[in-house]
User: What shape does this take?
Amino acid sequence: MSIRSARSAVAFLTIIPAAGSSGDAGERLGRAYFPAVGALIGFGAGLTLVVVSAFTTQLVGAAAALAVLAVVTGGLHLDGLADTADGLLGGRDRERRLKIMRDPRVGSFGAIALVLVLLIDVATLSSITPVRALLSLVVAGALSRWAMLWLVALLPYARPQGLGIAAAGGHRVFDLVLGSLLAALACLLDWRSAVIAVLLVTVVATGVAVFAKNRIGGATGDVYGAAAELCQLAVFVAFAVHL
Assistant: This one.
């Protein structure tokens, strides 16, 4: 792994043009660094929440934090969530489901998924203190991107080509191990809530993996994005639990 790999992870997960040239397609994405990049994105969104909440309300702060996440990531994972919901829930067979997931238009299932996930995101973030919300955003950023590595390790890629096929390249186990260590560091910020979060994220990510395997025979880039959004939500729920 290298600085170039870390830059590649930033370029893949955000709108920041940080990547340089490299050889292997899987290496260019720097998958092992996904949790670290996610934690940094979450930290930026958390700072936004704290500042905006100080001058308005925490509800507005939570909405601002989610806006930052959407802008910094270019809506990558939200788009994946919508496409995955439309494809996996709406298609008659594997080929049709994959075709729907390629369609840039958002269907009924996709719209419903986006609205519900964002509503619950705002509800959970606005129900806890700003500092605790900041911590949850950092942990959620790390664990939601760890979930992508978990799916890469569990599932074959469902298409012969596409953006996600690079994310599903070689060295899956090594990337998962290193990514797990980086995610664990973020979890130390609040280990009690993080324990619940890890359990929920593992269940949600594994559930997405099983469902995707049954519906399309594996994962796509959209499935990775959907898993990230759903696991992010799972972390927010974990931090909203009163211990």
User: Anything to note?
Assistant: The two ends are 38 Å apart (CA to CA). The mean pLDDT is 90. Residues 174 and 215 are 28 Å apart (CA to CA).
